[in-house]
Specification:
By secondary structure, this protein is of the alpha+beta class. It is 23% helix and 32% strand. It has three helices and twelve strands, in the order αααββββββββββββ. Strand 11 and strand 12 form a beta hairpin.
Length: 207
């Protein structure tokens, strides 16, 4: 009888121990699962770095180079002097229109057009202490209120600048442009390049 009574108690004790072990295992598993979830919190992973900045293109626009004037267009923001005035292109470098002569141009090269024209003599004086390069010198002309570009007739009497001018000396160049006789006003631009300012002469030439 005693052995029959003790067996159920043994079974009950073993069952209680097994339940306790299972509960402990479940608790440990939950704790481990919770720590893994906290370590891989998606909100932390998705948080933006403080060094990142929104890509709105502001840095691109601020560093974009400024636009240059289109070739063949009159210079903008340049103060003009009269056709008989003298302008400073760079420190110690002055320019003036020594002569404006009304001529009848004869076209001989493709693209040129003959007819009434102006032969403009441009004089550049070098008052610096070193040679002044004129190799990049360009003369352009425009006419009328809308500043229509005048066509150069290079084959009829044009005499370009020499390659350079010595200190204390002056150099001349003759440039011929097809300009209608009734065109007013006339605008002449001289650009010596190499960082020099564009000088502008404007007025109504006598024809």
């Amino acid at each position: 009888m005693l052995s029959q009574v003790r067996r159920p108690r043994t079974y009950v004790t073993a069952a209680a121990v097994a339940v306790a072990l299972v509960s402990l295992a479940v608790v440990l598993a939950l704790r481990l699962s919770g720590s893994d979830t906290a370590g891989s919190d998606p909100t932390v992973a998705a948080a933006p770095s403080s060094s990142e900045s929104p890509s709105d293109g502001s840095s691109e626009s601020s560093s974009a180079p400024s636009e240059e004037p289109e070739p063949g267009k009159p210079a903008v923001g340049t103060r003009a002097v009269g056709l008989k005035g003298e302008a400073t292109s760079a420190p110690g470098v002055t320019a003036r229109l020594a002569r404006i002569e009304s001529v009848q141009a004869t076209a001989s090269l493709p693209g040129e057009v003959g007819g009434p024209a102006l032969a403009i003599t441009v004089k550049v004086k070098n008052e610096t202490e070193k040679d002044l390069s004129l190799a990049l010198g360009v003369v352009n002309a425009y006419f009328g209120p809308e500043r229509t570009p005048a066509v150069s007739v290079a084959s009829d009497g044009e005499v370009p600048f020499p390659s350079s001018v010595a200190p204390g000396a002056a150099a001349k160049g003759v440039y011929v442009f097809q300009i209608p006789e009734d065109a007013r006003p006339v605008r002449v631009e001289l650009d010596l390049g190499d960082g020099a300012d564009v000088v502008v002469f404007k007025g109504r030439p006598q024809r």
